[in-house]
Every structure is written in C-alpha cells, then in structure tokens.
Design a protein that fits this description.
Helices cover 23% and strands 33% of the residues. It contains 4 helices and 8 strands. The protein is globular.
C-alpha cells in the first residue's frame, strides 16, 4: 500500500506492535482535541484541517464530508501529517506527530466498526480514510514522561 516514491506504510496496529509506548502516547495526545491534519493541495501547497482522529487496535482513521478539500487531497495525493494540539504555550503534556499515507476505506463493516469506536456519531454520508504510518515522533517539555523511543520510522 505505498505510493510511488514513498516509504512503506504500516497500519496503526503494526506500528503499535513495534512501538507500543510511542503509539499509546500518540493516541492519547491526538485524541485530546484539537488535532491538525496537514494535506497537500493540487498546486503542491500545504493545507491544514482540524480533525478528530479515531483509533482502534488495528487502525487510525478519520471520517469526513465527501466534498471536503482534505478528502480530495488524500484521494489525489495521499500524503498526510497529523499533529496534536497543545493546551498552552508551555506545551503541557507534550506533543506528537505522525505522517504517512491516507487511503479510502470502502468496507461497510469496517466503516461501522470505526463508527462504534468514534467519540461522536459520524453521519451516514461521511467517507472514511485509514491513515497508514510511515513516521511518528513525540516531544515533551519536562512535564510529562516520554516513551523511551521518541521517534519511529518505517525506513529504520
């Protein structure tokens, strides 16, 4: 599931098996709203969107409106980055970022299973993307214990 020229992308479950502490830290930070999705416009410039990530033991997902610019960006170019928000200028709680490739999910059973894991009820018209992981990293500012491995890459 890689696009030409990109590193191998892993499911969240595969990443979590390789780096459970980093994945747990990341899921905690990304579900503490807000999180921000970066995508690439057709012209090659970046675009940023607030999002509500959903995690299951197997995957990392986002629902969105079918007409959303972020959906078009993911469908056409696939590449993404997601960064956690921080609650203050001190970076309390630390930060987490992940990047990789987003792929549309067409499986209705999986759509329903992810909906059950969501913190909100997705509208039936929403489309679902799985975010595959190529790189993840965390950073802290002294107020939070960090995982032993602060960076993971599928290239390693």
């Amino acid at each position: 599931m890689t696009r030409s020229g990109s590193p191998r992308a892993f499911t969240w479950g595969e990443f979590a098996s390789a780096e459970p502490d980093l994945a747990s830290f990341g899921a905690d930070r990304l579900t503490a709203a807000p999180a921000y999705l970066g995508t690439i416009r057709r012209a090659g410039t970046p675009r940023v969107h607030p999002v509500t990530p959903i995690f299951t033991p197997e995957g990392f997902y986002l629902y969105m409106e079918p007409t959303s610019p972020k959906a078009r960006d993911l469908e056409e170019r696939g590449f993404y980055a997601v960064h956690s928000g921080v609650p203050d200028n001190a970076g309390t709680g630390g930060e987490f970022s992940v990047s990789g490739t987003g792929v549309p999910v067409d499986d209705h059973e999986l759509w329903a299973a992810v909906a059950e894991a969501a913190s909100y009820t997705p509208a039936n018209r929403y489309i679902l993307f799985e975010l595959l992981v190529c790189e993840a990293r965390c950073h802290g500012y002294g107020d939070v214990p960090l995982p032993a491995n602060k960076r993971w890459s599928s290239n390693a």
